[in-house]
Amino acid sequence: MDDLTLVRDHTIYSCVMGSRAFGLATEASDTDRRGVFVAPTPLFWRFEKPPTHVEGPRDEEFSWELERFCELALRANPNILECLHSPLVEQLTPVGEELLSLREAFLSRRAHVSFSRYAASQHGKLLADVRLYGAPRWKHAMHLLRLLRSCRDLLRTGRLTIEAGPDRERLLAVKRGELTWDEVDGWMTRLTEESDAALAATPLPEEPDRARVEDFLGRIRRASAH
After folding, report:
1. Which of 14, 16, 74, 123 could bridge to 35 as Cys pair (CB 3.0-4.6 Å)?
2. Domain spans of the chain?
3. CATH class of the domain at 3-106+209-225
4. pTM for the complete prediction?
């Protein structure tokens, strides 16, 4: 069974991500698709294991095998957690529905560290662009601001919301380069500080519910084996 067949025949959940899911799309925006597939259990009984992820078959499409997806979600990987909260679901099987029902099981205070590290990495790239070219890549700056806003609100409420919400127009102004870098950088700093402050009173648990997720994965593997 080739990799693309796994995606075509065994996907349990697929959605649209990127600007379209965030409410920040323009006519020129790509359609970024993300998905989760379940490799049949007998494939793990071979020396050559099934892939942990697959690109394609469509442009801008990327899928994870269920176990890898859950592993990354338990680590509070920002891209994975946001994938679970896309408002634009394209494919959903009963197993996919059960995966989505575990959204809260993946959320924990680990998100503060994972989102912050990712944001710091992206901010460093923006600063390098400013030093080299005098300005950042404004689209990337817009997406970092949205991510920082999502992290702050997650820590405050215990719920992850990926849409731009009331900041949509200002974020799009950032993408168009209508704010100065100092204004944008200051906004990023405030969001970071607000996230740090929210951590002290966050309703999120210290750790994700690993046992609940592992039980789900084990049941899916056993069902596939039979």
Report:
1. 14
2. 3-106+209-225, 110-199
3. alpha beta
4. 0.93
Q: What angle do CA 43, 67, 73 make, to 5 degrees?
A: 165
User: Do residues 216 and 102 touch, judged by C-beta distance below 8 A?
Assistant: yes
Locus of tokens 């994700």:
208
Per-residue pLDDT of the chain (226 residues; tens, 9 = 90+): 788 999 999 999 999 999 999 999 888 888 999 999 999 999 999 999 999 999 999 989 999 999 999 999 999 999 999 999 999 999 999 999 999 999 999 999 999 999 999 999 999 999 999 999 999 999 999 999 999 999 999 999 999 999 999 999 999 999 999 999 999 999 999 999 999 999 999 999 999 999 999 999 999 999 999 8
Rounded Cα distance between 119 and 123, Å, is 6
Question: Which strands, in side-by-side order, build the sheet including 32-37?
Answer: 53-55, 61-65, 32-37, 11-17, 89-92
As given in the structure block, the two tokens for residue 154 are 């997650």
